[in-house]
Amino acid sequence: MGPPAVVLLSGGLDSSTVLAMAREQGFSCHALSFRYGQRHVVELEAAGRVASAAGVAEHVIADIDLRVFGGSALTSETAVPKHASAEELGDDIPVTYVPARNTIFLSFAVAWAEVLGASDIFLGVNALDYSGYPDCRPEYIAAYEAMANMATRAGVEGTTRLKIHTPLIELTKAQIIEQGSRLGVDYGLTISCYDPTPDGAACGGCDSCLLRRRGFGQAGVSDPTRYQTEKTGQ
Q: Rounded distance, CA 201 to CA 225, Å?
């Protein structure tokens, strides 16, 4: 068994690909998911399926409730925006941005990594085909990593130098899908939708659905997602 690593696993396309990449590198993966009051809580079922299929060492779901703050269409009654195609997506930070979400999630991951004696955290952020979230950028990850190494006992004592791996950060969605397909990721286990039905059918029109659908089309790979609509989103 290889060295331990914490992998943030949402149950979506990106995090499932990152989990496969971490396993390929020989890490013993400890998957971390969150029940944070998200409207698309069915993603946790997907995370469980992915974790089980990958044979992770452990899968933990941490409970935090970001609905107490709201401020996002994912943690409030604000409607999730829908579009006809990915080309309609703008450059502004959308209302699906959850304030400080990756900062909060990474804090949990750092804490668990320190308990495990792990030096490595894997995160599926992407700065090309994504919704424009500020906590997905390379400069944010670099700043957080520097902070984490000043804020933990392991970092201060020099016993562990924490590394945050973001292997997808400069890839297009199509390239991510190509990587995952090479590694045998079953994307039929995953869900990316921000506004799915209770039984897990994807809406087909939110930012995440549109980017996913376009990525599969550009990669020339069949999209196994079950959608509510017949819109192509290409």
A: 8
Q: How far apart are the C-alpha atoms of 173 and 93, rounded to whole Å?
A: 19
For residue 194, the one-letter residue type is Y
Q: Above 80 in pLDDT, residue 129?
A: no
3-7, 56-60, 91-95: the lowest-pLDDT one: 91-95
Rounded CA gap, 175 and 183, in Å? 12
Domain that holds residue 146: 4-219
Average pLDDT over residues 93-109: 94
- Measured CA to CA, the distance from residue 227 to residue 96 in angstroms comes to 19
User: Is residue 53 assigned to a domain?
Assistant: yes
One-letter identity of residue 168: L
At position 59, the amino acid (one-letter code) is: H
Amino acid at 196: P
Number of domains in the chain: 1
Q: Secondary structure of 110-178 in the HEC alphabet? A: HHHHHHHCCCEEECCCCCCCCCCCHHHCHHHHHHHHHHHHHHCHHHHHCCCCCEEECCCCCCCHHHHHH
> Is 17 within 8 Å of 181 (Cβ atoms)?
no
Cβ(218)–Cβ(207) under 8 Å? no
Phi, psi of 216 (to 5 degrees): -60, -40
pLDDT number for residue 154? 82
Q: State the amino acid at position 153 in one-letter form.
A: R
The single-letter code of the amino acid at 126 is: N
CATH of the domain at 172: 3.40.50.620
